[in-house]
Amino acid sequence: xxxxxxxxxxxxxxxxxxxxxxxxxxxxxxxxxxxxxxxxxxxxxxxxxxxxxxxxxxxxxxxxxxxxxxxxxxxxxxxxxxxxxxxxxxxxxxxxxxxxxxxxxxxxxxxxxxxxxxxxxxxxxxxxxxxxxxxxxxxxxxxxxxxxxxxxxxxxxxxxxxxxxxxxxxxxxxxxxxxxxxxxxxxxxxxxxxxxxxxxxxxxxxxxxxxxxxxxxxxxxxxxxxxxxxxxxxxxxxxxxxxxxxxxxxxxxxxxxxxxxxxxxxxxxxxxxxxxxxxxxxxxxxxxxxxxxxxxxxxxxxxxxxxxxxxxxxxxxxxxxxxxxxxxxxxxxxxxxxxxxxxxxxxxxxxxxxxxxxxxxxxxxxxxxxxxxxxxxxxxxxxxxxxxxxxxxxxxxxxxxxxxxxxxxxxxxxxxxxxxxxxxxxxxxxxxxxxxxxxxxxxxxxxxxxxxxxxxxxxxxxxxxxxxxxxxxxxxxxxxxxxxxxxxxxxxxxxxxxxxxxxxxxxxxxxxxxxxxxxxxxxxxxxxxxxxxxxxxxxxxxxxxxxxxxxxxxxxxxxxxxxxxxxxxxxxxxxxxxxxxxxxxxxxxxxxxxxxxxxxxxxxxxxxxxxxxxxxxxxxxxxxxxxxxxxxxxxxxxxxxxxxxxxxxxxxxxxxxxxxxxxxxxxxxxxxxxxxxxxxxxxxxxxxxxxxxxxxxxxxxxxxxxxxx
Length: 709
Known about the structure:
With 709 residues, this protein is α+β, with helices and mostly antiparallel strands. It is 35% helix and 23% strand.
């Protein structure tokens, strides 16, 4: 369009050559270019896809036009001598071939002319009419042959001219890409050297003056602060920046016996008592010394001998893009996926894996202080992500009515039950009872979106944990999981977001922040930080660690207002005692990389067991075939089960329509072992266990179970 037309018909312009085209949902399109963003809405998903295709084509055309304009500028640096010689050699070969074609063309023209003369002479002779017509036809074909050969040689000559014309462009593009690669390599190398030098400087620095804030350690997210002449703070006092505006903590180990408040520049806001940090009797100390050493790990092994390995994962190749290109913007649970993208566990079993570090809750039962108990609950909430660091495969979507039990009552004191209570959207209810003094329940709905380069998994729903003796009732939600490099590169997973754990009885809170990975960040990857505070907002403990390795807890001795940040917020500085390790990840079993990176618990989850319900995930045939390495058969079986489930859904929808026509109510699918109730604490509608499963197991009465397999 002309500028005049655009002034009358356009609200604005955007340069498509540098624009980013994205889709929000089935009808919305987002165009962004720097600070300018346009939101476009189509009438339907089909129309949206047409617009996206047209915009992508226009973007490609705009990029070509921009490149052609830059080619004519002539400002680029000349190519290297090797590039020139290589290109000239190619052009020389093309010229040689063109000369051969020219020679052939001359010969064709020469012999063709002679042939035509001979045919013309034959035409002039007095021959029968039939022979004259045939000779005339041959003459015409010879003429066409000569015209075609001339056209071919002209096309070859044009090709050589174009090759010579665009040679400079090819040289510049190649040179530019090479320079960009070299520049990136040099930048990464320089950053790595700076990173190492900063680490060495932090570890080797003898100290700083009392007016200095410290040197941040990029390796552990801590700052070493030394005792200056004017400061009487102990060298080993630990400092933490507040959660709200400083994700990195400032830490130095402290000796509580030599801690003094007099003369301290940190006195004021709140005060704790070092003697409360009882090194002999504290539950923290017992968790640090006994729960996570090898001897205790061996003691925690179940009495019943369970399997320690599964068949190795087959090495099947698959064209990922051929499947994924039609899935962009769709709900993951609605995409038909082959088992090649799965691991041989269902989502119900993955949910049960949250209990791998159940002993943290057993220890929390023994805590007399609700804030101490909160620390163990916080560590437990983080520990559920430790198994995901290498687990980039997708678990099986459970069928509606599918269940999974994990009965470890005699071995570890708890028994767990999961049921798929909804299919669209997919929702699973989970209930765990422990005879050691706690009950956990949750209903999780998985919302997921495939965005081309990454996959976002958003667990929706609350997790409830109640301790029987104290009545403390904790509630929290899960963070977002993101799987990166879906199309190109090595898959890796990250956790990001915040968790707020609330004790609804004492009103204690814990704010945990999962820091998303950043290539340019100086923080430890997969970092988690948090603060435990009471009902009055007074901070008692600082939580720190990583979601794939360990979590530590440090008791706050004093807190005060520190310096003002660049955003204008005033920092709170926490002075703490030395940290205690609350949770540490168990090492993976041998050969885990060939067994889907399963942990010791995960290896046992799909182990066949007797007396389980006929709807149990262990009995799912496609999952069992996949675990055995028979993926082709598993894909066939998976399609059969999904089609069977669709048929049941269509029948249920037909029943609903029929009931509506007759003016009757239709309840839809009713979960077998769970029922929906309004939670008294949060006011949310949630599926809770209504009982009956373990009694049915004792009697082996599964008559109420649906036929889903």
